[in-house]
Design goal:
Number of strands: 8
CATH superfamily: Gcn5-related N-acetyltransferase (GNAT)
Largest sheet: 8 strands, mixed
Distance between the termini: 20 Å
Number of domains: 1
Order of helices and strands: EEHHHEEEHEHEE
Radius of gyration: 15 Å
CATH architecture: 3-Layer(aba) Sandwich
Strand content: 35-45%
CATH class: Alpha Beta
Bound molecules: coenzyme A
Number of helices: 5
Amino acid sequence: MVVAEPGMTVEIRRRSARESDERLREIAIAAKAHWGYPRERVIEWASKGDFSAETLGQLEIWVAEAGRNIAGWASLAPGDEVAWLEDLWVDPRWMRQGVGSALFAAVANESRRRGAVRMEWEAEPDAIGFYRRMGGRDLRDSPTTEWGRVLRIMGVDLRG
Ligand SMILES: CC(C)(COP(=O)(O)OP(=O)(O)OC[C@H]1O[C@@H](n2cnc3c(N)ncnc32)[C@H](O)[C@@H]1OP(=O)(O)O)[C@@H](O)C(=O)NCCC(=O)NCCS
């Protein structure tokens, strides 16, 4: 999928060997810190394993390529009937320019193509407005807590 931005084309494609784990982690840290969490805490959070080679190796990853840069990325965890959106991170320099919605659409379309009936994710509270714009609805509380809060599981119906 391609979205056109002033003076720049952003292409959504599968991750290639050119995008290092470190680069993906950097984008996630910058995106998370954009919500105002203390950077040291974000770096500590990012070092806990979610972005290790082992964890990333188990995911299917899509990147948004803007020129020679990666503007954001998204990942799907293995799933059948219900797809699980594990990651969605946009470089703050690229936020509010359609990159997040293009990545979201790419993973939702791929999940639908494979026969999933719904895609779910654990929603960062600051991103709930974005997810509502994507058609997401509240499903249940997450069993895990992050940063001392109960997070919400949201989902989008992929049928029809
Ligand atoms: C949430 C995030 C992925 C959105 O990406 P983005 O590229 O800025 O989103 P888009 O530009 O595609 O926005 C799509 C629509 O959602 C709206 N939107 C974007 N972020 C929003 C927010 N935080 N709150 C409310 N609406 C938002 C946009 O205004 C746009 O609306 P429009 O279609 O009416 O113009 C991005 O802000 C991000 O990476 N945040 C930090 C990391 C994070 O929280 N990730 C989610 C982890 S669960």
